[in-house]
Amino acid sequence: ITVTFFDGWETETDEYTLSDLADLAVVRVPLEGRSAEQLAGYRTVNLDEKIFESIRAGDSCIVMGGADTVAGEAYDGVLLGTWVFMENYGQYMIWAKADGKPGMSGGGIFDDSGHILGVLCGISEDGEWAAVPLALVIEETSFGGNMKND
């Protein structure tokens, strides 16, 4: 897989995983050889599966995404629920209230420290977001160390 970053830098990787049940893929990109200055321009996320256990309804959050760029827009919000069954999606989701707009789906929902909590799936007319919890993303993509090379 060839990955092209916003600054034109391209790299190759054969580490990826695809979900059989969700429209989801994860690609691991090697960043060796990039300078600190170059890396400072890239957006990274803090991955800590245990963080999800400590979040509660009422906690603040950040939704980030964009129709034209991966993390083009960010909005402060509040978690309404962390493990809510949503009929429209047929699964348990994170439920949050934050500004945003269509096209941000696929972006992330984060806690105040930048830990990713899940992947945004959709927003209602009332500004309520549904996001797949990180635990399900990891389970569905085998991201927990079982990357594919096929």
Describe the overall structure.
This protein is mainly beta and 150 residues long. It has helices spanning 36-40, 51-54, 134-141, and strands spanning 2-4, 10-12, 16-18, 25-27, 60-65, 73-86, 91-98, 108-110, 116-123, 128-133. The strands form three sheets. It has a six-stranded antiparallel beta barrel with strand order 5-6-7-10-9-8. Strands 1-2 form a two-stranded antiparallel sheet. A hairpin with a 5-residue loop joins strand 1 and strand 2 (10-12). The radius of gyration is 16 Å and the shape is globular.
- The whole-number mean of residue pLDDT values reads 82
The neighbouring-strand order within the major sheet is 5-6-7-10-9-8
Overall outline: globular
Distance between the termini: 10 Å
Query: What is the overall number of helices?
Result: 3
| Element-by-element helix/strand order | EEEEHHEEEEEEH
What share of the residues does DSSP label as strand, in percent?
Answer: 35-45%
Helix content: 10-25%
Class by SSE composition: mainly beta
Low-confidence stretches: 145-150
How many strands in all? 10
Major sheet summary line: 6 strands, antiparallel, barrel
Cα radius of gyration in angstroms: 16 Å
